[in-house]
């Protein structure tokens, strides 16, 4: 080559050389004779082209961001921002794949591809933490949020929270913008000794936890965090009492879970060594054993109950309505201990702080309707037509209605939780049940079927209130319950019920001549 070509010599990277180093080729022909050299040229050209494309896209993006809302042609600015991010990735990623990660880092820094920088740091750095902290200092919150997005997407929650310990305010901002991470946010609060917000987050997120044991643990931790957040002089404040009561009410429900499990386990005693192996088979057996009378007369309710109790056996949480149904729809309540289930069902309703008014009304009516139907009032009425006062008292005290009214009065339940027989009729709409069954996707369980099944109870209740003097017996039982409580409390003052409407009801329905 003559000297005229000396000034035209080009420098190209060589394999095995570090980024930025080049190799002199004395003749352009060497480029084509060496695949290595040609490949280096092509990679350099790709880097140049990528830089050019990103520069254009960046300028376009900055221009669109500067437009007013009326000037913008974009229907969704967030989508446009996401599209720009996709372009960056689509342009830079191929460079990394051909061994030019140095260019990937450089272009991602230049055009603020923070998510790309995070990926490159973890995939191509022996010590990614050093580069990450460098970028944290250089780019601040924008890079930090991209880093947190990466940790969350990879479910690296320990690293996520650990990094936040060094940047607590940044992590606070991130968690505030991501409400779906409240199940982790309380841990960051505890690290900062912010026990009150940690407690509230645990209480709030526990409502959406589907596993019973996990929810119970969250509530227990939340209560501990709450107690750690208050001073001794705050213990008597109404706000303190109310919050502690909310935790206690939520935790009390798990004693009901345990009670039901024990009842279900006891039902296996009747089958000796033939206990089913699968949870689904166990659920069906329990359904037939404890809720069998529903299967023929109210089949939709039966299938719903089997589904609910199977989920309980599997360790899942149940809704308040589900628990009420499992407690009150069993075929038999032969002992006083078993009859407590109806009072517990009322307590479950009372302790729920998230139940809708419609669901609460449905639950209260259903409980008292089932209470009234469990005793055979046709038989009771016939036997008491010529009974003595003592026989009358003993017979009525042996009813489920008496046991439930006594429990509710002893628990100090308010007026809204007492429903007389004439007000216990089914009146829920098909629309309400559609909302109830929608999440279940259970075969043979429909809103129309549930409405039809509940109307079966209404027919029987109508007979009891019309021909069997149930309303009158209810008033007498109210007086008996009130007398029992008054004697236990040593109260000589005459009063008939926990609220005015019960006093009025008992007064207006005196026990008629037992001879009829």
UniProtKB/TrEMBL annotation:
Keywords: mRNA transport, Nucleus, Protein transport, Translocation, Transport. One of its GO terms (molecular function) is structural constituent of nuclear pore. GO terms for cellular component: nuclear pore outer ring. It is found in: Nucleus envelope. InterPro entries: Nucleoporin_Nup133/Nup155_C, Nup133-like. Residues 108-406 form the Nucleoporin Nup133/Nup155-like C-terminal domain. Pfam families: Nucleoporin_C. It comes from the Eukaryota. GO terms for biological process: poly(A)+ mRNA export from nucleus; protein import into nucleus; transcription-dependent tethering of RNA polymerase II gene DNA at nuclear periphery. This is Nucleoporin Nup133/Nup155-like C-terminal domain-containing protein. Residues 1-23, 489-516 are annotated as: Disordered.
């Amino acid at each position: 080559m003559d000297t005229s070509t000396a000034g035209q010599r080009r420098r190209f990277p060589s394999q095995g050389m570090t980024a930025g180093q080049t190799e002199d080729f004395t003749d352009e022909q060497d480029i084509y004779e060496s695949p290595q050299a040609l490949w280096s040229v092509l990679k350099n050209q790709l880097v140049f082209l990528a830089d050019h494309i990103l520069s254009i896209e960046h300028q376009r993006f900055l221009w669109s961001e500067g437009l007013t809302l009326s000037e913008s042609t974009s229907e969704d600015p967030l989508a446009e921002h996401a599209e720009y991010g996709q372009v960056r990735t689509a342009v830079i990623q191929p460079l990394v794949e051909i061994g030019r990660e140095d260019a990937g880092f450089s272009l991602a820094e230049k055009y603020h591809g923070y998510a790309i920088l995070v990926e490159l740091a973890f995939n191509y750095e022996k010590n990614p933490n050093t580069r990450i902290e460098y970028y944290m200092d250089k780019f601040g919150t924008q890079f930090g949020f991209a880093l947190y997005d990466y940790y969350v997407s990879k479910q690296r929650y320990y690293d996520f929270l650990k990094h936040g310990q060094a940047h607590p305010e940044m992590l606070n901002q991130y968690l505030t913008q991501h409400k779906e991470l409240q199940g982790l946010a309380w841990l960051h609060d505890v690290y900062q000794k912010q026990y009150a917000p940690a407690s509230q987050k645990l209480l709030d997120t526990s409502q959406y936890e589907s596993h019973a044991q996990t929810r119970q643990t969250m509530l227990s931790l939340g209560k501990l965090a709450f107690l750690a957040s208050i001073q001794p002089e705050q213990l008597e404040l109404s706000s303190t009492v109310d919050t502690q009561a909310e935790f206690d009410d939520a935790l009390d429900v798990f004693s009901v879970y345990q009670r039901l499990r024990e009842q279900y386990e006891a039902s296996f005693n009747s089958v000796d060594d033939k206990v089913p192996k699968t949870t689904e088979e166990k659920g069906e057996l329990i359904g037939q054993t404890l809720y069998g009378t529903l299967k023929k007369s109210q089949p939709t309710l039966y299938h719903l109950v089997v589904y609910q109790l199977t989920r309980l056996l599997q360790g899942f949480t149940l809704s308040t309505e589900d628990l009420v149904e499992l407690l009150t729809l069993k075929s038999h309540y032969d002992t006083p201990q078993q009859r407590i289930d109806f009072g517990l069902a009322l307590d479950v309703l009372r302790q729920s702080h998230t139940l809708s008014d419609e669901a609460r009304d449905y639950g209260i009516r259903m409980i008292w309707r089932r209470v009234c139907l469990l005793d055979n009032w046709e038989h009771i009425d016939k036997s008491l037509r010529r009974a003595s006062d003592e026989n009358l008292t003993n017979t009525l005290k042996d009813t489920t209605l008496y046991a439930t009214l006594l429990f509710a009065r002893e628990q100090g339940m308010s007026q809204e939780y007492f429903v007389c027989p004439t007000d216990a009729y089914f009146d829920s709409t098909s629309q309400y049940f559609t909302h109830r069954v929608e999440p279940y996707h259970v075969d043979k369980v429909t809103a129309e079927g549930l409405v039809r099944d509940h109307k079966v109870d209404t027919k029987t209740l109508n007979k009891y209130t019309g021909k069997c003097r149930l309303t009158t017996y209810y008033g007498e039982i109210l007086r008996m319950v009130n007398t029992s409580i008054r004697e236990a409390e040593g109260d000589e003052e005459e009063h008939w019920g926990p609220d005015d409407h019960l006093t009025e009801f008992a007064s207006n329905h005196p026990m008629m001549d037992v001879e009829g």
